[in-house]
Amino acid sequence: MLPFEDHIQLTPVAWRKILEAALRRGCNLAEIYQEYRVFTLINMEEDIIKETASSISLGVGVRVISGDQTGYGYTNKPELSEVLRAARTAAA
After folding, report:
1. In whole numbers, what is the pLDDT of the chain averaged over residues?
2. Which backbone phi and psi does 35 adopt, to 5 degrees?
3. What is the pTM of this model?
4. pLDDT in the model for residue 3
5. DSSP class of residue 76?
6. Rounded-to-integer distance, Cα 25 and Cα 32, Å
7. Distance CA 39, CA 13 (A)
8. Which DSSP string do the residues of 1-29 spell out, in sequence order?
9. Which H/E stretch holds residue 77?
10. N or C: which end of the chain has fewer CB within 10 A?
11. Residues 25-54, mean pLDDT to the nearest whole number
């Protein structure tokens, strides 16, 4: 099982397409960052719980390096079309 496979359901072929899109403009390096973060907040005053909150952050980022320039694209919609758009943004 690949990391984040339960949450970000892209195949190895899709990951290859994303990297190819990121490198298409002659960049030196491209990398993919997957994020799945769970955040929980509990606010207490004088031993009394006043507030609680939970959130989940899910997304994919693509970083591209070309010489001394770095580009980055991110999406919180981990679908192939959206991640490809992020890769093209990073490459631009």
Report:
1. 90
2. -125, 130
3. 0.77
4. 54
5. S
6. 17
7. 31
8. --TTTTTS---HHHHHHHHHHHHTT--SE
9. none
10. N
11. 92
* CA-based nearest residue to 82, from 21, 5, 12, 6: 21
pLDDT per residue as tens digits for the range 40-78: 999 999 999 999 999 988 999 999 999 999 999 999 998
Dihedrals φ, ψ of 12, to 5°? -55, -35
In eight-state DSSP terms, residue 31 is E
Edge-first strand order for the sheet with 48-66 is: 29-45, 48-66, 69-75
Residue 67 three-state SS: coil
Closest CA to 72 of 29, 36, 26: 29
